Amino acid sequence: MIVKKPFYQKNTLAVAKNLLGCFLVRKIGKKTIRGMITETEAYVGEDDLACHASRGRTKRTETMYGEAGRAYIYMIYGIYHCLNVVTEKKGFPAAVLIRSVKIFERPMSGRKTSDAIELDGPGKLCGFMKIDRELNGLNISLGKRLWIEKGIKTSAKNIRNSKRIGIDYARHCRHYLWRFYIQF
Fold first, then answer.
1. Model-level pTM?
2. Who contacts 169 (Cβ-Cβ below 8 Å, separation ≥6)?
3. 103-150 pLDDT, tens per residue?
4. Chain-centre distance of CA 135, in angstroms?
5. What dihedral angle (degrees, nearest 10) is formed by the CA atoms of 13, 121, 110, 158?
């Protein structure tokens, strides 16, 4: 079942936790790749110095200020794409970065594999799933090309949180425990 817009209109930290165990799905032509979301990070508003919106509304961040349930995709280091899902209300810049997924089927074949493929890093998962800026702004609640499906219910005792990764520049915000992951 595709996750609909109201799911994303909630508090960003809650959405970041609730995405754990859901499935990120990418359709490319007749082929489908499905990976269970195992790690996320929350970025909330202009006061969050790690959030792209901390510098205000720009052409790059315009999608973050839009409707919840949109894909916010940007490039880092000039080579890697990162997939975020816009959250909360229109006009308030907040999003959840999808950091890691596990794939339990052979991509493009639908056959189960004995070992899961772990795409541990936003650049790895975007590269593998062919997610790039062409999909920026896409409404992922419609189930076209890229979407999220309800998945397994993740017990609170299996969810861990820690500091976000790669944001040492964000002064006091670098200490926020807004990275969430499943402890298997």
1. 0.93
2. 49, 50
3. 987 655 555 656 789 999 999 999 999 999 999 999 999 999 999 999
4. 13
5. -40
